[in-house]
TrEMBL record:
Superkingdom of origin: Bacteria
Similarity section: Belongs to the universal ribosomal protein uL22 family.
GO cellular component assignments: cytosolic large ribosomal subunit
Gene: rplV
Pfam families the UniProt entry points to: Ribosomal_L22 (PF00237)
Descriptive protein name: Large ribosomal subunit protein uL22
Residue ranges of coiled coil: none
Subunit structure and binding partners: Part of the 50S ribosomal subunit.
UniProt entry keywords in alphabetical sequence: Ribonucleoprotein, Ribosomal protein, RNA-binding, rRNA-binding
Protein's GO biological process: translation
GO molecular function, one term: rRNA binding
Gene source species: Pararhizobium mangrovi
Length: 129
């Protein structure tokens, strides 16, 4: 028997990839995600390749995964793909303590974040623009 197949959350011309528990603060990850939002995928890949941010390598891998999902799972044309959405969510925060002077201690927070990238096949009107 089993469960009924869940309905697809995305449109027919979209594909998604998610990277979970990336060891970076959501605020820093959002700076890199904002850099690629709304751009064509080849332009976004080029910008991530030469970005000096540490996390840009994992963002690039996630974008490549979304492109591969679009091509292999949904038969979308890779040359017309655009980064439709790139959003960041909070994950867990590890709390650590560091010894300080005069017998005191300070709390160090080590945040994690989730990254979701949705690529969309651009329509004819978007390509002309």
């Amino acid at each position: 028997m089993g469960k009924a197949k869940a309905e697809r959350r995305l449109k027919e011309n979209e594909a998604m990839a998610v990277a979970r528990s990336l060891r970076v603060s959501p605020q820093k990850l959002n700076l890199v995600a904002a850099m690629i939002r709304g751009k064509k995928v080849e332009r976004a890949l080029a910008e991530l390749e030469f970005s000096r941010k540490r996390i840009s390598d994992q963002v690039r891998k996630t974008l490549e995964s979304a492109i591969a999902n679009a091509e292999n799972n949904h038969d979308l044309d890779v040359d017309t793909l655009v980064v439709a959405e790139a959003y960041v969510g909070k994950s867990l925060v590890m709390k650590r303590f560091q010894a300080r002077g005069r017998g005191r201690a300070s709390r160090i927070e080590k945040p994690f974040a989730h990254l979701t990238i949705v690529v969309r096949e651009a329509e004819e009107t978007e390509k002309a623009a």
